[in-house]
Amino acid sequence: MQMLYNSDSFAVVHILANAQEVASAASGETQGPVLPRHGFEIVDKRSGKEVYLDGSWAELFQRQIEAWQREHPTQEEVEETLERYASLAQTPVVVH
Q1: Where are the domains of the chain?
Q2: Which among 14, 15, 27, 40 is least surrounded, fewest beta carbons within 10 Å?
Q3: CA–CA distance from 85 to each of 25, 52, 81, 88, 92 (Å)?
Protein backbone atom coordinates (compact mmCIF):
# COMPACT_ATOMS: atom_id res chain seq x y z
CA MET A 1 0.00 0.00 0.00
CA GLN A 2 1.14 3.49 -0.76
CA MET A 3 -0.54 6.69 0.42
CA LEU A 4 -0.81 8.99 -2.59
CA TYR A 5 -2.88 11.84 -1.20
CA ASN A 6 -4.16 12.87 2.21
CA SER A 7 -6.11 16.00 3.10
CA ASP A 8 -8.86 16.97 5.52
CA SER A 9 -11.44 15.79 2.96
CA PHE A 10 -9.90 12.84 1.08
CA ALA A 11 -7.34 10.06 1.29
CA VAL A 12 -6.11 8.10 -1.72
CA VAL A 13 -4.21 4.84 -1.35
CA HIS A 14 -2.62 2.77 -4.12
CA ILE A 15 -3.03 -0.92 -3.30
CA LEU A 16 -0.81 -3.50 -4.97
CA ALA A 17 -2.75 -6.66 -4.21
CA ASN A 18 -0.28 -9.16 -5.67
CA ALA A 19 2.97 -7.23 -5.98
CA GLN A 20 4.99 -10.18 -4.63
CA GLU A 21 3.61 -12.61 -7.24
CA VAL A 22 4.15 -10.14 -10.09
CA ALA A 23 7.77 -9.60 -9.01
CA SER A 24 8.33 -13.36 -8.84
CA ALA A 25 6.84 -13.85 -12.30
CA ALA A 26 8.98 -11.07 -13.74
CA SER A 27 12.12 -12.72 -12.41
CA GLY A 28 11.04 -16.11 -13.78
CA GLU A 29 10.53 -17.71 -10.36
CA THR A 30 6.93 -18.82 -11.07
CA GLN A 31 5.34 -20.88 -13.81
CA GLY A 32 2.78 -19.25 -16.10
CA PRO A 33 1.62 -15.66 -16.43
CA VAL A 34 0.65 -13.57 -13.45
CA LEU A 35 -1.51 -10.57 -14.16
CA PRO A 36 -0.78 -7.52 -12.05
CA ARG A 37 -3.74 -6.60 -9.84
CA HIS A 38 -3.85 -3.21 -8.29
CA GLY A 39 -6.34 -0.57 -7.44
CA PHE A 40 -6.98 2.69 -5.71
CA GLU A 41 -9.01 3.31 -2.59
CA ILE A 42 -10.52 6.78 -2.32
CA VAL A 43 -11.88 7.69 1.10
CA ASP A 44 -14.24 10.62 1.44
CA LYS A 45 -13.57 11.63 5.04
CA ARG A 46 -16.55 13.98 5.08
CA SER A 47 -19.11 11.25 4.40
CA GLY A 48 -17.17 8.38 5.96
CA LYS A 49 -17.44 6.33 2.75
CA GLU A 50 -14.91 4.80 0.41
CA VAL A 51 -14.74 3.51 -3.13
CA TYR A 52 -12.25 0.99 -4.49
CA LEU A 53 -11.26 1.40 -8.13
CA ASP A 54 -9.84 -1.59 -9.98
CA GLY A 55 -9.72 -2.83 -13.56
CA SER A 56 -10.56 -0.19 -16.14
CA TRP A 57 -11.52 2.29 -13.40
CA ALA A 58 -8.03 1.92 -11.91
CA GLU A 59 -6.45 2.43 -15.33
CA LEU A 60 -8.49 5.59 -15.85
CA PHE A 61 -7.51 6.90 -12.42
CA GLN A 62 -3.84 6.02 -13.08
CA ARG A 63 -3.97 8.23 -16.18
CA GLN A 64 -5.42 11.03 -14.03
CA ILE A 65 -2.53 10.68 -11.57
CA GLU A 66 -0.02 10.82 -14.43
CA ALA A 67 -1.70 13.99 -15.72
CA TRP A 68 -1.46 15.52 -12.23
CA GLN A 69 2.25 14.72 -12.14
CA ARG A 70 2.76 16.55 -15.44
CA GLU A 71 0.45 19.52 -14.78
CA HIS A 72 0.86 20.15 -11.01
CA PRO A 73 -2.78 21.05 -10.26
CA THR A 74 -3.94 23.03 -7.25
CA GLN A 75 -5.39 21.24 -4.24
CA GLU A 76 -8.83 22.52 -5.26
CA GLU A 77 -8.50 20.95 -8.72
CA VAL A 78 -7.40 17.62 -7.23
CA GLU A 79 -10.25 17.61 -4.75
CA GLU A 80 -12.81 18.47 -7.44
CA THR A 81 -11.70 15.38 -9.36
CA LEU A 82 -11.72 13.22 -6.22
CA GLU A 83 -15.23 14.49 -5.46
CA ARG A 84 -16.44 13.04 -8.78
CA TYR A 85 -14.95 9.64 -7.95
CA ALA A 86 -16.21 9.84 -4.36
CA SER A 87 -19.75 10.22 -5.67
CA LEU A 88 -19.47 6.48 -6.50
CA ALA A 89 -18.71 5.64 -2.86
CA GLN A 90 -21.27 3.41 -1.19
CA THR A 91 -19.15 1.49 1.32
CA PRO A 92 -18.87 2.94 4.82
CA VAL A 93 -15.35 3.11 6.20
CA VAL A 94 -14.91 0.57 8.99
CA VAL A 95 -11.97 0.65 11.37
CA HIS A 96 -10.66 -2.84 12.17
Answers
A1: 2-92
A2: 27
A3: 32, 10, 7, 6, 15
